[in-house]
Amino acid sequence: LGKSALLSPVSNRITIQMLVDRTSIETFANEGKVSMSSCFLPETKDMPLETYCTSGSVKIISLEIYQLKSIWNNTEA
Question: What's the pTM value of the predicted model, to 2 decimals?
Fold first, then answer.
């Protein structure tokens, strides 16, 4: 996706909330101080989601992942 943003830690921490859909990612950092949206058309090989640090070190304190049910049911009325 190739997007980046500068973000300063608050009390030596950064919080990130991400909403990932089939063709988009919404990212909110430090309670909305930084936000960005990305739209894409993924290929099968692009399914993993990764995070990384380009300098220094990172310690993940908490990570929660929730899978939502699809609104696109295959049931007929």
Answer: 0.69
